[in-house]
């Protein structure tokens, strides 16, 4: 037998995707720890880098994070001067979050490190296979977002 794991599990895409995610997280988490950050911190920095300033609730929704958990992540990022909060000009009752200049620079650096970490754990796959994998996984995630009413068609 060439495989260590039970064939029943190796036939389940959900098992495989979950296990591959854990492998990828190991590499990414290691890169983030060098900056004193965790994966949710990186998600916040990446989200704000990609979308620009957002209301706190919108950021939580886009990242799929619990809104009350997001507050703790933001508190740490504010403490490190990576993000700032201000009243949302569209709704003064809400907070809007934006990257600081330091946060923008770190987000760029972390995106590069994240890409390198993914290259390490996906070294077994060709570039074309990686693109296919990402495309297929993205389709599943987008379909789930639509099914949950998260995004319009």
From TrEMBL:
**Pfam families membership:** MarR
InterPro entries attached to this UniProt entry = HTH_MarR-typ, MarR/SlyA-like, WH-like_DNA-bd_sf, WH_DNA-bd_sf
Domain (HTH marR-type): residue spans on this chain: 1-142
Domain of life here? Bacteria
Which PANTHER family did the record assign?
A: TRANSCRIPTIONAL REGULATOR, TRANSCRIPTIONAL REGULATOR, MARR FAMILY
What name has this protein been given in UniProt? MarR family winged helix-turn-helix transcriptional regulator
Source organism per entry reads: Amycolatopsis silviterrae
Which lineage do the record's taxonomy fields give for this organism? Answer: Bacteria, Bacillati, Actinomycetota, Actinomycetes, Pseudonocardiales
């Amino acid at each position: 037998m060439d495989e260590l794991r039970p064939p029943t599990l190796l036939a389940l895409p959900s098992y495989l995707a979950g296990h591959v995610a854990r492998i990828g997280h190991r590499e990414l988490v290691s890169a983030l720890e060098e900056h004193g950050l965790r994966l949710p911190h990186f998600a916040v920095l990446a989200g704000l880098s990609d979308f620009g300033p957002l209301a706190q609730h919108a950021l939580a929704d886009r990242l799929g994070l619990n809104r009350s958990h997001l507050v703790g992540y933001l508190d740490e990022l504010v403490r490190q001067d990576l993000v700032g909060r201000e009243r949302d000009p569209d709704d003064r009752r809400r907070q809007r979050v934006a990257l600081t200049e330091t946060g923008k620079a770190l987000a760029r650096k972390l995106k590069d490190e994240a890409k390198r970490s993914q290259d390490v754990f996906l070294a077994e796959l060709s570039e074309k296979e990686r693109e296919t994998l990402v495309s297929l996984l993205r389709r599943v995630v987008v379909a789930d977002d639509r099914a949950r009413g998260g995004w319009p068609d």
